[in-house]
Write a structure and sequence with these properties.
By secondary structure, this protein is mostly helical. It has 2 domains: 6-55, no CATH class; 60-290, MetI-like fold. It has helices at residues 6-38, 41-46, 59-66, 68-99, 107-119, 124-133, 141-144, 151-162, 166-174, 179-190, 192-207, 211-216, 225-233, 249-290. The longest helix is centred in the C-terminal third of the chain and has 42 residues, at 249-290. The two termini are 33 Å apart.
Length: 292
Amino acid sequence: MKKHSNSDKWLLFTNKIVLIFLVLIVLVPLLYILLASFLDPNVLLSKGISFNPKDWSIEGYTRIFQDDLMVKGFINSIIYSVGFTLVTIIVTIFAAYPLSLNGFKGRNVIMVFFLITMFFNGGLIPTYLVVKDLGMLNTIWSIILPGAISVWNIILARTFFKGLPKELFEAAKIDGASELKIFLKIVLPLSKPIIFVLALYAFVGQWNSYFDAMIYLEDQELHPLQLVLRSILIQNEVQPGMISDQLAMAELSKIAEQIKFASIVVSSLPLLIMYPFFQKYFEKGVMVGSLK
């Protein structure tokens, strides 16, 4: 076992303290929101967090799933996020792989044009006019297509492809394999780490996005969950289906607080469920795609 000097021990100890502190900064608010979403509003306002099962309540979750806009928003967010992820992966992979080949003429010029778009763009109003002229306003395509291409993702995937063993490609060409067959049979099976990384980036980004929907979608039936949640958290509004008209204003305010916490938990569930399955690919994909 390797022995550490006193300075190394103090450094390791300091690192552990800092890491524990950072974990607590992230973990404590999450635990508070989770517990608050299950607490009776009266108990939460009077006593704070309570671990007594008699003080727990699922009223906030009940109200959420009784509200049509919230349920439709959840379904819409899944559709938008999955669709956006698929389009992003397909476009990124098919753009990055040719740019990683040494024999592809003009690849440097194309990369220069790609890089320019990272620093300069038309802005919000021209983008809106383009989406409008293409007839995509108030449709699912206005959410999926405009942001599907990310130059950063293309650079990440391109770097990953350039790091693949060239001997495999040379052996496949000697055996008479075409470029398409090499891509499908060799490149894609070896690209699982970067594909999962791109999928995680795209899904999380789209799931948390509400600005594009706020601009392009007028029909409330098409609003994603984050836009519905925004109206609850920022504008302090609760949908009519969640609250009965017979409740007094004080009671309405109390249950609104519980609904806010429950909404945050519900909106975070897909990401929390998805991340453990992507974790084993995430670190490898990021590290390999960022080297060379």
